[in-house]
UniProtKB/TrEMBL annotation:
Name listed for the protein in its UniProt record: NAD(+) kinase
Keywords: Kinase, NAD, NADP, Transferase
Listed PANTHER family: NAD KINASE, NAD(+) KINASE
Enzyme class: transferase
Length: 470
């Protein structure tokens, strides 16, 4: 027995008289059936409306509407062709279950395709960072400063030791430009509230140095201005621009609407003189309450780190032995040469040399990589960006440990001290040359020499074919 089609039902319904249709509409049985249909069929639209109302500001709609692919592409203008992260997960599960709202989240992960630079006001103050002790960068530095001051009428800030360079002092033609430069000294002058744009000339170290100038210590705001890095150094993982076309590229950035990569940083605290260091762990590895209390110690250092925090054995010949905690729970004891806690940006630095994977800067994560571990079972791990890591010396450690932050501010860690690490709310907005995906893979291909043989073979084939044709 076949069921009547939906088309025939619609035709028969429309063929009936208006009085008969009104009678059916007023029927209690028909009303109950329509109510059930509305609850079943219209529940999806109601759920979408509720999710849209409860969605946090800045969150994008990624739910796939029903229908064919062509209908979806035409009726959903918000849908993108590709994205780095997965779709934003729905926060409602079934008719009544949902995720508890948490307004105190560490940081909001934005859709990478929507990360575009814009200016509320035209930029005025530009900080130019040049690699020190590199004579090959003197001429590019002078060209850039002359372009910014004379053609763009910008206020250019440079470090005092850069402006006092002997080569610049001897150049009389550059004297007028040099007298208009604003200078500062690291550690003495705070320029974080007046810089609109940062331009780096050199390698990856110049961008690390730019990040170190913008810290959160006594100020309420710790945001970093956009950074435009030109590749004029040894490594180019973080420097996508070529200096040959600097005028065109800088003009585009001043106009706005440039792609940026939000490079997350680590917020690090060094806590000294803990009163009650843990001797034994409670059930399931939970720390005693007194050990995680911030009042039990004194915060002697607080930094924002772009690449990594390295804990190593220092000058001692003994292996370092440190305990690693994740949100107050003991994860493991790391016995070896040390441990690296890095950002995705730092995954191509020391962590990659220690055997870790390379992660795109927009992936919200923290990497933990052991350095030559004594136990081969401990491999590099990746944890969510919002957790808090804590590193302390193990009670049975024979010697102290040493910690450094992006290769700087090295200091000794003794028994009772701890290092607390979590993701900072103030990333480094790095301006892209093309887009955030192409720039990253192109930097890997150039620095790691990917596909070099294939490129050479293709060039040889092209030259051979041209010779044969002649």
């Amino acid at each position: 027995m076949t069921q009547p089609s939906a088309t025939s039902n619609q035709l028969s319904e429309s063929a009936r008289s208006p009085k008969h249709r009104d009678h059916l509409a007023k029927s209690p049985r028909r009303q109950r059936k329509a109510s059930r249909t509305q609850r079943r069929g219209g529940g999806h639209e109601q759920l979408l409306r509720e999710i849209e109302q409860r969605r946090l500001p800045g969150q994008h709609e990624h739910l796939e509407p029903s229908g064919s692919a062509s209908d979806t592409a035409e009726s959903s203008p918000k849908r993108r062709a590709h994205f780095l992260h997965g779709p934003y997960p729905a926060t409602h599960f079934g008719p009544k279950a949902c995720i508890l709202p948490n307004p105190t989240s560490v940081m909001h992960i934005q859709d990478p395709a929507s990360q575009r630079l814009t200016w509320n006001k035209p930029p005025v103050n530009v900080l130019v960072i040049r690699k020190i002790r590199d004579e090959s960068l003197v001429e590019p530095f002078k060209e850039l400063c002359r372009f910014l001051v004379e053609e763009k009428q910008m206020m250019v800030y440079v470090e005092r030791r850069v402006a006092d360079d002997a080569t610049l002092s001897k150049d009389e033609a550059f004297g007028s430009i040099r007298n208009q430069l604003c200078t500062f000294r690291e550690g003495y002058d705070d320029i974080s509230d007046c810089i609109d744009l940062i331009i780096c000339l050199g390698g990856d170290g110049t961008l690390l140095y730019a990040s170190s100038l913008f810290q959160v210590i006594t100020r309420l705001l710790g945001s970093v201005p956009p950074v435009m890095a030109f590749h004029l150094g040894s490594l180019g993982f973080l420097t996508p621009f070529k200096f040959e076309s600097y005028k065109t590229e800088v003009a585009k950035v001043f106009e706005g609407n440039a792609a940026i990569t939000l490079r997350s940083r680590l917020k690090v605290k060094v806590v000294k003189d803990i009163r009650e260091p843990p001797q034994q762990q409670e059930h399931n590895g939970l720390l005693p309450h007194g050990h995680t209390n911030n009042e039990a110690g004194k915060v002697t250092l607080q930094l924002q780190v772009l690449n990594e925090v390295v804990v190593d054995r220092g000058p001692s010949s003994y292996l370092s032995n440190v305990d690693l905690y994740l949100d107050g729970r003991l994860i493991t004891s790391v016995q070896g040469d040390g441990v690296i806690v890095s950002t995705p940006t730092g995954s191509t630095a020391y962590a990659a040399a220690a055997g870790a994977s390379m992660i795109h800067p927009n992936v919200p994560a923290i990497m933990v990589t052991p350095i030559c571990p004594h136990s081969l079972s401990f491999r590099p791990i990746v944890v969510p960006a919002g957790v808090e890591l804590m590193i302390t010396l193990s009670p049975d450690a024979r010697n102290t440990a040493w910690v450094s932050f992006d290769g700087r501010k090295r200091q000794e860690i003794q028994h009772g001290d701890c290092i607390k690490i979590t993701t900072s709310c103030y990333p480094v907005p790095s301006i892209c040359c093309h887009d955030l995906v192409y720039d990253w893979f192109e930097s890997l291909a150039q620095c790691l020499h990917w596909n070099v043989r294939k490129r050479q073979a293709r060039l040889e084939d092209v030259s051979d074919s041209s010779d044969t044709g002649n």
